[in-house]
Amino acid sequence: MKNIITLLVLLISFTNAGAQKISGSWNGKLNTPAAKLTIVFNFSTDSLGKENVTLDSPDQSAKGLPGKVIFISADSVNVTLESLRIEYSGKLINSTIIGKFKQAGYTIPLELKAGEYIMNRPQKPQHPLPYSTEELTFSNKSGTATFSGTLSYPIGYMSMKKVPVVIFITGSGLQNRDEELFGHKPFFVIADYLAKNGIASFRYDDRSFGKSTGDVSKLTTQVNADDAEAGIEMLHKLGKFSKVGVIGHSEGGNISFMLAAKKSCDFIVSMAGLAVKGDTALAAQVNRINELSGSPKRTTTEDYRKQIISIGNDWLLFAINYDPTEDIKRIECPVMAINGNKDVQVISELNLNAVRKNLSPNSKNMIKEYPNLNHLFQKCTTGLPNEYSTIEETISPEVLSDIANWIKSLK
């Protein structure tokens, strides 16, 4: 009997020890020389009993980076992410894992607390939404890419009364239909505001991203413009809307100029779109960021061109050579072109002045610079990209109001 009791005690001890292993999500702040970054480790056990770990860096829009568990117990953990040369080891003391984060020869203290890290984004629309949405797909002209997106109908929409619709075009880099970045979903926020103000919208995942498909090996702004044009044609063919317009952000703002020049749409909203030749605009971006970061280094347009040419990337090569001047001169439809004066990626005065210079006169045009707004149209301090994730506001309410009121003013 004594041996049986002893065996039961051992079994219970082993079972409890297994259950007490560090698990779930643990987050903390990593104080690097460049910035303070939120780090999240997610510990789990699969059906075969194997311990797994992933790493999130919300401030860098990184999620689910796979790692390897070297050791884990009720009070200790040691994990690595070999591809990023990261190692973390720590010990659980009074509900806090106190440990060291190592990467590329640097060692930084990192304390972790249990729980998921939730970014506060007060403007994020909450379900159930007070308007109707519909999932739609369309293909590019060659049929080599298929795009999936969300059509939002405005409150009070009736089939007998046509309303305007806008198609959203994201900035550079592959993004989902919400243009999600650092927990912000600016296109979702704008679409939600428009739907509540009588304007329909369609936002879609970029090719090969989210639920969309397509090859990205030779991706350029022109390819993205062709994709967007196919989306516009789809909206026209639905026959449900009075006008079809474009809202493009950053590279999407460039694309809006290209599409308007081809008379593909009825109006455009260019949010921080480049209005000067790419090499000039991007060299100005580098210099503004260097200036605000305290670096005296200056880059000439020619030096910037040489750097990009040496890289040989298709998207970058198109970007430095594309000059929107002629496209802007050909535009006849109403244009809303906006920038924040603290935008360090698309310098406001440089690009808005070019729009004013080259855009044909139209009483319906609206060109506006917003004080203290950055590239994402958030209220900011410096405008530098390292602020994006720390700002709770997704997009300025003034910008939302201006976009909706301007579109409604178009008869």
Rough outline: globular
Order of helices and strands: HEEEEEEEEEEEEHEHEHEHHHHEHEH
Number of helices: 10
Strand content range: 25-35%
Largest sheet: 9 strands, antiparallel
- Find the structural class using helix and strand composition: alpha/beta
Q: Note poorly predicted spans.
A: 1-19
DSSP strand tally: 17
Q: Report how far apart the termini are.
A: 91 Å
Percent range of helical residues: 25-40%
Radius of gyration: 25 Å
Average predicted local confidence, pLDDT: 93
Main-sheet strand order equals 4-3-2-1-9-8-7-6-5
Walk me through the structure.
The chain is of the alpha/beta class and 411 residues long. It has 10 helices and 17 strands. It has helices at 2-19, 186-195, 221-238, 251-261, 278-292, 301-311, 314-321, 325-330, 348-358, 397-409, and strands at 24-31, 36-45, 51-57, 62-66, 68-72, 76-81, 86-93, 96-103, 106-114, 133-139, 146-152, 163-169, 200-204, 241-249, 267-271, 335-340, 366-370. Helix 5 packs across helix 6 (301-311) and helix 5 crosses helix 7. The chain is globular, with a radius of gyration of 25 Å. It starts with a helix and ends with a helix. Mean pLDDT is 93; it is low at 1-19.
